[in-house]
Design brief:
Blueprint (H helix, E strand, L loop, with lengths): L1 H26 L8 E7 L5 H15 L4 E7 L8 H9 L14 H6 L2 E4 L13 E4 L10 H26 L1
Parallel strand pairs: 1-2, 1-3, 3-4
Length: 170
Protein backbone atom coordinates (compact mmCIF):
# COMPACT_ATOMS: atom_id res chain seq x y z
CA UNK A 1 0.00 0.00 0.00
CA UNK A 2 2.85 2.39 0.87
CA UNK A 3 4.49 1.72 -2.52
CA UNK A 4 1.23 2.49 -4.32
CA UNK A 5 0.92 5.82 -2.45
CA UNK A 6 4.48 6.74 -3.34
CA UNK A 7 3.84 5.94 -7.01
CA UNK A 8 0.66 8.03 -7.01
CA UNK A 9 2.40 10.98 -5.34
CA UNK A 10 5.35 10.69 -7.74
CA UNK A 11 2.93 10.64 -10.66
CA UNK A 12 1.13 13.75 -9.41
CA UNK A 13 4.41 15.63 -8.99
CA UNK A 14 5.52 14.58 -12.47
CA UNK A 15 2.26 15.69 -14.01
CA UNK A 16 2.37 19.02 -12.18
CA UNK A 17 5.88 19.64 -13.52
CA UNK A 18 4.90 18.99 -17.14
CA UNK A 19 1.65 20.92 -16.71
CA UNK A 20 3.63 23.88 -15.40
CA UNK A 21 5.79 23.85 -18.52
CA UNK A 22 2.72 23.66 -20.75
CA UNK A 23 1.04 26.51 -18.87
CA UNK A 24 4.12 28.73 -19.08
CA UNK A 25 4.02 28.24 -22.85
CA UNK A 26 0.34 29.25 -22.98
CA UNK A 27 0.96 32.45 -20.97
CA UNK A 28 3.97 33.73 -22.91
CA UNK A 29 2.75 33.70 -26.49
CA UNK A 30 5.65 35.94 -27.65
CA UNK A 31 8.30 33.37 -26.74
CA UNK A 32 9.01 30.50 -29.11
CA UNK A 33 7.07 27.50 -27.93
CA UNK A 34 9.31 24.61 -26.95
CA UNK A 35 7.09 21.58 -26.57
CA UNK A 36 7.34 19.51 -23.41
CA UNK A 37 9.03 16.20 -24.21
CA UNK A 38 7.30 13.02 -23.05
CA UNK A 39 9.16 9.72 -23.42
CA UNK A 40 7.35 6.37 -23.27
CA UNK A 41 9.61 3.37 -22.65
CA UNK A 42 8.98 -0.36 -22.60
CA UNK A 43 11.52 -3.17 -22.61
CA UNK A 44 11.49 -3.83 -26.37
CA UNK A 45 10.22 -0.47 -27.68
CA UNK A 46 8.01 -2.44 -30.04
CA UNK A 47 4.58 -2.61 -28.44
CA UNK A 48 3.44 -0.93 -25.20
CA UNK A 49 5.48 2.25 -25.60
CA UNK A 50 4.47 2.53 -29.27
CA UNK A 51 0.76 2.23 -28.42
CA UNK A 52 1.04 4.65 -25.47
CA UNK A 53 2.94 7.22 -27.55
CA UNK A 54 0.37 7.05 -30.37
CA UNK A 55 -2.58 7.45 -27.98
CA UNK A 56 -0.89 10.21 -26.00
CA UNK A 57 0.23 12.18 -29.06
CA UNK A 58 -3.25 12.23 -30.62
CA UNK A 59 -5.11 13.03 -27.40
CA UNK A 60 -2.61 15.74 -26.41
CA UNK A 61 -3.03 17.39 -29.81
CA UNK A 62 -6.84 17.15 -29.60
CA UNK A 63 -6.73 18.78 -26.14
CA UNK A 64 -4.34 21.54 -27.22
CA UNK A 65 -1.24 20.41 -25.33
CA UNK A 66 2.09 21.35 -26.89
CA UNK A 67 4.16 18.18 -26.53
CA UNK A 68 6.74 16.15 -28.38
CA UNK A 69 6.31 12.41 -27.89
CA UNK A 70 8.97 9.73 -28.26
CA UNK A 71 9.06 6.00 -27.62
CA UNK A 72 12.06 3.78 -26.98
CA UNK A 73 13.12 0.50 -25.42
CA UNK A 74 15.74 -0.57 -22.93
CA UNK A 75 16.51 -3.66 -25.08
CA UNK A 76 14.79 -2.88 -28.39
CA UNK A 77 13.46 -5.38 -30.89
CA UNK A 78 14.47 -4.89 -34.54
CA UNK A 79 10.92 -3.93 -35.64
CA UNK A 80 7.62 -2.78 -34.21
CA UNK A 81 5.28 -5.69 -33.53
CA UNK A 82 3.16 -6.37 -36.64
CA UNK A 83 0.19 -6.94 -34.32
CA UNK A 84 0.67 -3.46 -32.84
CA UNK A 85 1.04 -1.87 -36.28
CA UNK A 86 -2.17 -3.57 -37.52
CA UNK A 87 -4.03 -2.60 -34.33
CA UNK A 88 -3.03 1.06 -34.59
CA UNK A 89 -3.99 1.17 -38.29
CA UNK A 90 -7.42 -0.35 -37.48
CA UNK A 91 -7.88 2.36 -34.86
CA UNK A 92 -7.10 5.10 -37.41
CA UNK A 93 -3.53 5.81 -36.25
CA UNK A 94 -0.66 6.00 -38.70
CA UNK A 95 1.69 3.04 -38.82
CA UNK A 96 4.88 3.66 -36.83
CA UNK A 97 7.46 5.12 -39.22
CA UNK A 98 10.60 3.97 -37.46
CA UNK A 99 12.01 0.85 -35.90
CA UNK A 100 12.33 0.60 -32.12
CA UNK A 101 15.40 2.32 -30.77
CA UNK A 102 17.39 2.07 -27.58
CA UNK A 103 16.74 4.74 -24.98
CA UNK A 104 19.76 7.07 -24.75
CA UNK A 105 21.26 9.33 -22.10
CA UNK A 106 20.16 12.25 -24.32
CA UNK A 107 16.54 11.04 -24.01
CA UNK A 108 16.83 11.13 -20.23
CA UNK A 109 18.44 14.59 -20.35
CA UNK A 110 15.78 16.11 -22.61
CA UNK A 111 12.56 14.44 -21.39
CA UNK A 112 10.28 16.42 -19.12
CA UNK A 113 8.34 13.26 -18.31
CA UNK A 114 9.45 9.64 -18.67
CA UNK A 115 6.80 6.93 -18.54
CA UNK A 116 8.36 3.52 -17.93
CA UNK A 117 6.09 0.61 -18.82
CA UNK A 118 7.58 -2.50 -17.25
CA UNK A 119 11.24 -1.58 -17.73
CA UNK A 120 14.18 -2.69 -15.65
CA UNK A 121 15.79 0.69 -15.00
CA UNK A 122 18.88 -0.59 -13.22
CA UNK A 123 22.01 0.71 -14.89
CA UNK A 124 20.23 3.68 -16.45
CA UNK A 125 20.84 7.25 -15.38
CA UNK A 126 18.23 9.26 -13.53
CA UNK A 127 16.11 11.28 -15.95
CA UNK A 128 16.24 15.08 -15.73
CA UNK A 129 12.46 15.18 -15.76
CA UNK A 130 10.07 13.15 -13.70
CA UNK A 131 9.85 9.37 -13.92
CA UNK A 132 6.51 7.59 -13.64
CA UNK A 133 6.27 3.80 -13.66
CA UNK A 134 3.33 1.98 -15.23
CA UNK A 135 4.54 -1.46 -14.22
CA UNK A 136 1.05 -2.86 -13.73
CA UNK A 137 0.17 -2.82 -17.45
CA UNK A 138 -0.21 -6.50 -18.42
CA UNK A 139 1.82 -8.00 -21.25
CA UNK A 140 0.19 -7.59 -24.66
CA UNK A 141 1.11 -11.19 -25.42
CA UNK A 142 -1.12 -12.45 -22.58
CA UNK A 143 -4.24 -10.40 -23.25
CA UNK A 144 -3.91 -7.77 -25.96
CA UNK A 145 -7.33 -6.18 -25.39
CA UNK A 146 -6.83 -5.88 -21.62
CA UNK A 147 -3.32 -4.44 -22.01
CA UNK A 148 -4.49 -2.01 -24.70
CA UNK A 149 -7.34 -0.82 -22.47
CA UNK A 150 -4.97 -0.39 -19.51
CA UNK A 151 -2.64 1.75 -21.65
CA UNK A 152 -5.53 3.80 -23.05
CA UNK A 153 -6.92 4.44 -19.54
CA UNK A 154 -3.48 5.46 -18.23
CA UNK A 155 -2.96 7.84 -21.16
CA UNK A 156 -6.40 9.43 -20.73
CA UNK A 157 -5.77 9.82 -17.00
CA UNK A 158 -2.37 11.41 -17.66
CA UNK A 159 -3.82 13.90 -20.17
CA UNK A 160 -6.68 14.79 -17.80
CA UNK A 161 -4.24 15.31 -14.93
CA UNK A 162 -2.01 17.52 -17.09
CA UNK A 163 -5.01 19.63 -18.05
CA UNK A 164 -6.27 19.87 -14.43
CA UNK A 165 -2.83 20.83 -13.17
CA UNK A 166 -2.39 23.45 -15.89
CA UNK A 167 -5.81 25.00 -15.22
CA UNK A 168 -5.16 25.17 -11.44
CA UNK A 169 -2.01 27.19 -12.10
CA UNK A 170 -3.77 29.50 -14.56
Amino acid sequence: MRTKRILVITGIVAVATVAGALLAQKRDQSAPLKPAMVLFMCPHGAAKSVIAAAYFERLAKERGLNVRVESAGTDPDPTVSPTVTAHLKRQGYPAPQSNPRKVTPKDFESADLVISIGCDLSGLQEPRGKLVRWDDVPPLSEDFARADEAIRERVIGLIEELLRSASKKD
